[in-house]
Automatic annotation (TrEMBL):
This is Carbohydrate sulfotransferase. It comes from Haplochromis burtoni. GO terms for molecular function: sulfotransferase activity. Its main location: Golgi. One of its GO terms (biological process) is carbohydrate biosynthetic process.
Length: 345
């Protein structure tokens, strides 16, 4: 059953299943401490680990049930991803490593953690967490948005030697957080094109308006502001885009190469805090470090939700929606998201 499930999770599941009645719930989600050496299960550490993922109950039974649920969830996500990879990308993990496949992976050495950046799936707050873990910041609250993205000084896996990359992929915890693809796309559009932006308007906006808007005004062509969602989708689906792909809407199946990298932990934006805090406890993060929930970019704007996503996609016809679904088809398959519209096939 567990052949494709990470060894550490399999070991934890065995502990849950056979030993939880007479022993502590788990000594760690992973068998080693963050620095790779065995760490004694102190009373303090046991209490910390039992706080995994916002458990609804403080009773031992409640803690066991929550831990079992989260372990089963990881098992299910890994099994699904493994099945899809075997079906659609057989043998990909045996191919030579490319720089691009690890170009979005950040390395936190002290916790032996690899994190693949997926924009619009909590990546700003994940970078803050990595900065705290690395010791470059005391609190996630102290890190402004631009500092998290442009001043984080976090190393990327692509900057290591081939041997260093191989060793870290083998021994470090590898984390991936994903989001419902249509919702992630709408979130990116709202962020980059409906708010003032000194990069996306002149670089992407001007090119999109020039290519896809008939009788565009000189003001629109000059500023690049006011791109509509339909124009943005036309750009996205154009095989000869006037400007290239961008990581904010690139499919996760391409951005993070999940079939090749074989992530240890697969979290979802829809359960972001619960999944992230479970991961942080499992790697032995400091007790006072929890995943932040604040939104510091366009804080007055409503967060993109499934209902907002439906409104944006209702601006498209059925054919256009189908083409966008086809564009993100592998993401839907790999991460088990249901079809967002009933007429999709």
């Amino acid at each position: 059953v567990f052949e494709t499930w990470p060894r550490s999770f399999t070991k934890t599941w065995v502990i849950f299943k056979h030993e939880y009645q007479t022993k502590p719930l788990f000594s760690s989600l992973f068998s080693d401490s963050p620095l790779g050496s065995k760490q004694p299960l102190t009373k303090r550490r046991r209490k910390l680990l039992l706080k995994s993922s916002m458990a609804a109950s403080s009773s031992p039974t409640g803690q066991v049930e929550v831990a079992l649920q989260l372990a089963r969830m990881q098992e299910s996500r890994h099994r699904l991803l493994s099945d899809i990879c075997a079906q659609y990308q057989p043998g990909v993990d045996r191919r030579p490593l490319s720089q691009r496949q690890v170009s979005r992976v950040y390395v936190e050495e002290r916790s032996r953690l690899l994190y693949c950046e997926v924009p619009k799936a909590g990546c700003s707050n994940w970078k803050r967490v990595l900065m705290v873990l690395s010791g470059s910041a005391a609190s996630t609250r102290d890190i402004p948005h631009d500092a998290a993205h442009y001043e984080n000084r976090l190393p990327r896996l692509s900057g290591y030697s081939r041997a260093g990359v191989t060793e870290r992929l083998r021994s470090y915890t590898k984390a991936l957080f994903v989001r419902e693809p249509f919702e992630r796309l709408v979130s990116a559009f709202r962020d980059k094109f409906e708010s003032p932006n000194s990069y996306y308007h002149p670089v992407f906006g001007r090119a999109i308006i020039s290519r896809y808007r008939a009788n565009a005004t000189h003001a629109a062509l000059r500023s690049g502001a006011g791109v509509t969602f339909r124009e943005f989708v036309q750009y996205l689906l154009d095989v000869r885009r006037p400007v290239g792909m961008d990581i904010h809407w690139e499919p996760v199946s391409q951005l993070c190469s999940p079939c090749f990298l074989q992530f240890t932990f697969i979290g979802k934006f829809e359960s972001l805090e619960r999944d992230a805090n479970f991961l942080l406890r499992s790697i032995g993060a400091p007790a006072n470090l929890t995943f932040p929930d604040f939104k510091d970019r366009n804080p007055l704007a409503e967060r993109t939700s499934s209902s907002i996503t439906q409104k944006y996609f209702s601006q498209l016809n059925a054919t256009e929606r189908q083409k966008v679904f086809d564009f993100y088809y592998m993401d839907y398959l790999m991460f088990g998201y249901p079809k967002p519209f009933s007429d999709l096939h």
